Amino acid sequence: MSPSDRKCIPYLLFFNLAFFAAPPETALGTLIPLLVCLLHVTRRFYECLFVHVFSDSKMSVVHYLAGHFFYLSLPVCLVSSEPSTDRGFASSSVFLSVVILLETGQHLAMKQLASLRPVESKGTKARYLPPTGSAFSYVTCPHFAMEIAFYITVHFYLGLRFVPFSALAMFVLVNQFCAARKNYQWYGEHFSAYTKHRTSLIPFIL
């Protein structure tokens, strides 16, 4: 397990503490998003351990610290962003259904990306190939789009008003948009034909 993998463990423990230590009067509309985000982070942790094939690129110190701050702030912001009205069975069911679709889609995209980067062997360097098929037929970064959609979906469930979680959702939106554009430019430089019929995040639009 690499240091980047191990750093996820405190966040998982913190999420568990925030979820199970929530007072009995905590609204179900807060507990459900908290549980959903716990499962989201757990899936990301699983992918770090068993799915991703990491390159030799380095993460900037600013990005590293921002990641720590984000995941430590996430459960706090969720607990502080209780919906203004109760969420019924129908709205909760729709919310969970959308989340399951997004989680499944993002996980499949991550597996597809990992399958294109063979594990480096001694004396050789893994060669990256652009992904094709499924959502990658229309955009270069569907996994980023689904990350944005996940946090927007959680925000919709919490309510259409400015709450502490809004700042995190905005951060994800800006961060993933910038990352997607950077990836799109990289694909254009290294695989010029690949970007001719694809956009970065939203098919045919952006």
TrEMBL record:
One annotated GO molecular function: 3-oxo-5-alpha-steroid 4-dehydrogenase activity
Catalytic activity reported: a di-trans,poly-cis-dolichal + NADP(+) = a di-trans,poly-cis-polyprenal + NADPH + H(+)
Listed GO CC annotations: endoplasmic reticulum membrane
Compartments, as annotated in UniProt: Endomembrane system; Endoplasmic reticulum membrane
Subcellular location, principal: membrane
A single BP term in Gene Ontology: dolichol-linked oligosaccharide biosynthetic process
The protein's Enzyme Commission number: 1.3.1.94
TM segment ranges: 12-41, 61-81, 88-109, 148-174
InterPro entries: 3-oxo-5_a-steroid_4-DH_C, Dfg10/SRD5A3
Pathway: Protein modification; protein glycosylation
Membrane topology note: Multi-pass membrane protein
The entry's keywords: Endoplasmic reticulum, Membrane, NADP, Oxidoreductase, Transmembrane, Transmembrane helix
All copies of domain 3-oxo-5-alpha-steroid 4-dehydrogenase C-terminal, residue ranges: 90-206
Purpose of the protein: Plays a key role in early steps of protein N-linked glycosylation by being involved in the conversion of polyprenol into dolichol. Acts as a polyprenal reductase that mediates the reduction of polyprenal into dolichal in a NADP-dependent mechanism. Dolichols are required for the synthesis of dolichol-linked monosaccharides and the oligosaccharide precursor used for N-glycosylation.
Homology family: Belongs to the steroid 5-alpha reductase family. Polyprenal reductase subfamily.
Name listed for the protein in its UniProt record: Polyprenal reductase
Organism: Dibothriocephalus latus
